[in-house]
Amino acid sequence: FIYDPELWEQISEDQIPFVRKLAESPDQNVKQTISLALVQKERNAAEQTKSPPKMDLSSLIEQLSASPQPDLSVFKALAEHGQDAQPAIPVLQSLLENDNLWTQMQAAQVLYLIQGDPGPFQRRLDKALAFGPGPLAEMQHKDPFSLFPDDFYNPYRHSMWKAIEGCKQKENPFIKYLLSETLMAEPYGGEISIKALQAIGTPEAVAELEKLAESTDWELKSAATKALKRLRSTPSASK
Questions:
Q1: Among the listed residues 185, 196, 183, 187, the one whose alpha carbon sits nearest the alpha carbon of residue 224
Q2: H or E element: which one contains 152?
């Protein structure tokens, strides 16, 4: 038995009693692995039900103004305020002209969550998508986690996927970027796009996953089918 967090997260509530019985196995490896998985699953469930306090809005605006490239955590915390973060609009708009495209994308994403205008975010995503792909050796920004130094990839891909994931409105106009040929053709591109669609979880995202589940590409088909199964086993997915 091997503890794979992603695999164990697929265990549904009605399967828990059976899994608990396996935890009584005389095989110590099986017993320890299942006990660890159950404890972690309970912790994850508890974390999901928590509602951490929002960071003070004025403090977040100060942090945005203090750095030419604010930390991702500042953008994320600001996004949690939604439309209440309107006082941050002037600073966010100034960051749209930042020299760093990553910073522009984060600012544009939060502006979309506040104002509902997809235009600025779409333009930055178009700009990021047009940047690649290209060989790593010629890229200004190298992926330190790449296991394949000769692969072709877009250096902004991860930022794009994560920023789009954060837009969980009923209709997400940015899903098309997850499915672009440029990103889907990259190493693990399809897998990461499918995970992003699952995280978004809107009806539109589900519809795209259903299309991918009919793909002739076995890996895409399998990953999309698993993502749909996870979404449908989550109570909130039907809302």
A1: 196
A2: strand 152-153
